[in-house]
């Protein structure tokens, strides 16, 4: 396995491929936005369905409340993601403008910051001074270095509307799973005997699959991440069902 990995690394680390990869820059994956939209869609919609079923309300009530939650919560989450991403971009631009101003007004102070940043990385003597000179000879690179090293801000920002769209799409697609058996019963001549059972099975499978995919972003085996998401989603649904059952006398 190590031999195969070594061959792969050698193939992808030729000077030409490294140069091409660095020139392209980092690209953002919207899979993270999709996964978290899917998790929230499955949890909240199934919780609503569970609560209404626990209250022993009619199928059309389940559909109405489930669909209302699906669209409203999905849109709310997408808007929140959009605003959050846009705020990060605005922070980057504000900080960039401040750094450019500092470089113009007091370049020696900003040079000293670069010097200390690279001294902390192990540079010293003439090599340190040469590194400082090279970085500060280009004001754009100088400002970018300060953004990354002093403020820990990523230069490649996420496109806000794409992140929001990924979240909203995932929320709708996965959030529709808990409602589907009830929609089928409402529209079909061949209804399920127990639509809530099929809703639970479908949503449980979605919980596990989402958790397994989520493991890409956390240091955890896919099956443990899947079981964790399944357990948390099931707990939320159980709580909603219990509340619905306790309050069904009000319906």
Give a brief rundown of this model.
This is GMP synthase. Its main location: membrane. The protein is mostly helical.
Structure characteristics:
single chain; 251 residues; mainly alpha; 11 helices; 78% helix; elongated; GMP synthase; manganese ion transmembrane transporter activity; Ccc1_fam; transmembrane helix; membrane
Shape: elongated
- Count of alpha and pi helical runs: 11
Strand and helix order: HHHHHHHHHHH
Structural class: mainly alpha
Radius of gyration: 26 Å
Helix content: over 70%
Oligomer type: single chain
Mean pLDDT: 86
Biggest sheet record: none
Number of strands: 0
Cα end-to-end separation: 62 Å
Q: What share of residues are in beta strands?
A: under 5%
Uncertain runs are: none
Give a topology summary.
Layout: H1 2-12, H2 15-24, H3 31-54, H4 59-105, H5 107-119, H6 125-136, H7 139-149, H8 160-175, H9 180-187, H10 195-214, H11 222-246
């Amino acid at each position: 396995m190590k031999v195969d990995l070594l061959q792969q690394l050698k193939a992808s680390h030729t000077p030409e491929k490294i140069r091409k990869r660095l020139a392209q820059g980092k690209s953002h994956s919207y899979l993270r936005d999709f996964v978290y939209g899917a998790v929230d869609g499955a949890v909240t919609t199934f919780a609503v369905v569970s609560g209404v079923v626990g209250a022993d309300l009619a199928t059309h009530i389940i559909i109405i409340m489930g669909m209302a939650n699906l669209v409203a919560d999905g849109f709310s989450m997408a808007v929140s993601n959009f605003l959050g991403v846009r705020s990060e971009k605005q922070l980057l631009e504000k900080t960039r403008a401040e750094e450019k101003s500092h470089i113009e007004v007091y370049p020696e102070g900003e040079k000293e910051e670069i010097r200390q940043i690279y001294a902390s990385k192990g540079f010293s003597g003439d090599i340190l001074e040469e590194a400082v000179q090279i970085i500060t000879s280009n004001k754009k690179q100088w400002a970018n270095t300060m953004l990354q090293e002093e403020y820990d801000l990523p230069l490649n920002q996420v496109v806000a509307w794409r992140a929001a769209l990924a979240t909203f799409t995932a929320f709708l697609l996965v959030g529709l799973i808990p409602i589907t058996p009830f929609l089928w019963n409402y529209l079909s001549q061949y209804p399920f005997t127990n639509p809530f059972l099929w809703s639970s099975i479908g949503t449980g499978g979605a919980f596990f699959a989402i958790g397994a995919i989520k493991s890409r972003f956390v240091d955890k085996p896919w099956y443990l991440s899947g079981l964790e998401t399944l357990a948390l989603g099931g707990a939320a649904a159980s709580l909603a069902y219990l509340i619905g059952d306790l309050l069904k006398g009000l319906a």
